[in-house]
């Protein structure tokens, strides 16, 4: 009997796909034994460039931070933003914890049950995952949250220490199910809306760092716009996530979880708003960014992927809480760079050199030709692929 697709080796799977020989070979050459164990139907790796934000000062400590991102100019802008943050970024957070949900859709009243079974609920959690208690974490609390007339969530607050904690939370939640059987729960699962992992970073910026008081005022007005206009807010937050998601990805964390949670938080007032806030305080531009951020420095893909461990080692020996502050600081720097560029006449000028590099490669320039093509294109008023191709041909002749 022939094997099912998922039972084939990565190379045999490639043979099943309609690919030309060159593509098949290229995909085969990029395979890695470790990643083949991570996902089903593995065929190859997809590479994303990694760069660093160099020398960001967070709570008085200097870090180099890896960013994995395909968009040209994101890393350049982040570094630019870091240079403008004259003082150290300050980080504020309280004890971080994940939320696990037990969901009911049958108008249950759990209040007296959870009161009388309080100790048992804590005991079940301890038995389900004793190792997280040895690390100083575990179930901290649980509370009833009414979702609608007939829907209730029993929220379990669980400290997962340096792990992102999805598996830890789900293990505890599934162990708790049995105790609540009589109430016919719909199911249990962690919530990715990490409101018990709210982190705030803030920084003060001298006006001269952004090009003067007038630019600073424009930055404040632009940011204010994002509090009232979802069209602007989405773009401003996308810019913030340019920084955040790039570090989250480089460190092997789950960027979908961080983004989903961040966007939900941006809508917490009933309207989608910009996540950062810029004001003028004591003759300085003051920036603040708060969002829920659930990341780890152990567990999940981080422990499995050498790439993630290597990227984390660039930052140094940090725990999950340090990492949260560092990630948000990069998000704030990224936000400042974007607002400064818009306030001083647009982002295209800064962007174009990086975009033209991509365009040069798209039209077939080799690495040693890219700089020459870019320096020609930068002088032209109008640029497109056919013009880039012509410039490349001229250089070659
Ligand atoms: P793991 O279960 O892989 O890792 C956590 C384990 O790491 C702990 O149980 C602990 O095991 C060990 N550990 C070692 N040092 C520490 C420390 N200092 N602090 C805490 N734990 C430590 O992963 P997570 O529970 O973090 O789950 C994350 C993974 O789950 C991610 O890959 C995510 O994508 C995935 N996932 C996400 C979902 C979602 O977001 N909705 C749903 C399901 C999965 P021990 O104590 O035994 O050594």
TrEMBL record:
GO biological process: coenzyme A metabolic process
E.C. number: 1.1.1.88
Pathway(s) this gene product operates in, as recorded in its UniProt entry: Metabolic intermediate metabolism; (R)-mevalonate degradation; (S)-3-hydroxy-3-methylglutaryl-CoA from (R)-mevalonate: step 1/1
GO molecular function: hydroxymethylglutaryl-CoA reductase (NADH) activity; hydroxymethylglutaryl-CoA reductase (NADPH) activity
Alphabetical UniProt keywords: NAD, Oxidoreductase
Catalyzed reaction equations: (R)-mevalonate + 2 NAD(+) + CoA = (3S)-3-hydroxy-3-methylglutaryl-CoA + 2 NADH + 2 H(+)
NCBIfam families (alphabetical): HMG_CoA_R_NAD
UniProt similarity note: Belongs to the HMG-CoA reductase family.
PANTHER family: 3-HYDROXY-3-METHYLGLUTARYL-COENZYME A REDUCTASE
Protein name: 3-hydroxy-3-methylglutaryl coenzyme A reductase
